[in-house]
């Protein structure tokens, strides 16, 4: 007859978070967070896996041991027939139950090689059951709330965000989205309330000065008597060098009649990027005429989310 621990392992194998909700103890934290939060994150993660069709769902539990963070602690990695592990977990146990379950990033399985490890689940410092905010935490959370409130007021009153708003706003709140937090572990759930909006508007503020350069390139292009590869390729190469990544497109969700482009549900004034948008359309149209180049590492941004909002 299967005991409770066996059933918990089977529930993980079957990606059955509902069964884990029944089996795990309500008054016990897992991975340092309340049981309900732990299970809710598993539900989100399992649901995301099932809709992605990334790999086969024939997962089996393979025993192993942590090599670093909780060195010597044992647990299981859940691996399918393709060698994909959706998560490796340490299981601290008593005779009849598990006293804790938590994600492990330095897990070594016994007799089964992991070809690819997925991200698993993670939480924020203010999710933890023993979290006590410092004075700095309280001030930071207030700033996040203020940033969110100011943005929502602008959206409510103006609808479309212009440089008159997002330039000073990102200057004031841009440090909330500081990539250095990832390496110090200073990531809190209250950052999420505004993190992606700050990332997007910081990107917009950084590229805004390129509008004048885009205008000069637009004027040069319009001066060509005809458009063929021989005539415009040098222009394409130079434009691509000065306005890197623009050939991949800009403002795909553009509403020309209403005068905005949209990202992360933020509507940005399209007129402020009129030439930038038009040059992007040209580079995209003649993409195949632009030779591939290897960009040096130093060309990449080192601050903030390195994501392309468009």
Automatic annotation (TrEMBL):
Source organism per UniProt: Kaistella jeonii
Name the record gives this protein: Uncharacterized protein
